[in-house]
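Thread: "does anyone have the structure for this chain?"

Original post by V.I.:
We have the sequence but no experimental structure in hand. Need at least a predicted one for the grant figures.
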Amino acid sequence: MPTSQVAINKKAAKSFFESKQSRWSSRIINLFFCLLSILFIIPLLLVISISFTDEKTLLQSGYQLIPEKFSLAAYSLIFDSPGVLLNAYGITILVTVIGTVVGLFLTSLTAYTISRKDYRYRKIMTFFVFFTTLFSGGLVPFYIMVTQYLHLKDTIGALIVPYLLSPFFILVMKGFMDKIPLEVIESAKMDGASEWRIFFTMVIPLSLPAMVTIGLFISFQYWNDWWLGLLFIDNQNLIPLQLMLYRVMSTIEYLSNNLSSVNVSIDMTQFPSLSTRMAMAVLAAGPMMLVFPFFQKYFISGLTVGSVKG
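Reply from O.Q.:
Generated one for you, tokens below.
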């Protein structure tokens, strides 16, 4: 056999084994992430299952992925007086929408400013942003600032303003905007475009994956927050959903543990305490779980591009 033919056969055999090895590696990786995904999904399915399970069955048989005895008692109890729940939903949706839009605008504006290589104070401003990720003023100055100086106590602003700018989100967005060539911006300026026009018509469209990713993070932060409501909201009409969930769970737990010491005529054996807690968790998390899949492709690209350094 000619020498050239032997070399071709060796090359083909090597390519065949490498291809086979690559396929096996892909299968193992896919299998690993499938198992990991199942481990993440199981707790969620368990919460949903518990919310639809009869309370007595839960006490007798424990938690099960498939309800042994199906019951809607928990949801019936929650929706028996839907006014409070709907009001809390409205407050949370309003805070999430306004906070996400305004917070995303301010975050992108700040990140764009400190990402511009021709900005004289770029390094010192970046240091100030980074410094706040390491040190903060503490809870007491934060409370005094919001209540005494900004006068936001018992207002919707108390649920929005404190989360408008996050140093972590600014730095992630800056990492993405650093990739935008300065020559593109200078070219636009030579054509007569103003800074605002460059920002809205060039920078934001080029940063769409990062904008969607950070926007999703901000919306999750607003949707899941109950701490600001606990600190600053006493008006019952401004209670957000997560704080209402927290109070319901605390009340049920208190009654379950101290029923003999309080003058309340409730038969806790008939009260769906466990399933009600899980039903509240499902109702609180449901909308965001439906929103997340629509932004997943932007979420992945925004995080990876923003994290890779050139």
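V.I.: this helps a lot. Residues 306-310 have pLDDT under 50 and may be disordered.
O.Q.: and The longest helix spans residues 3-51.
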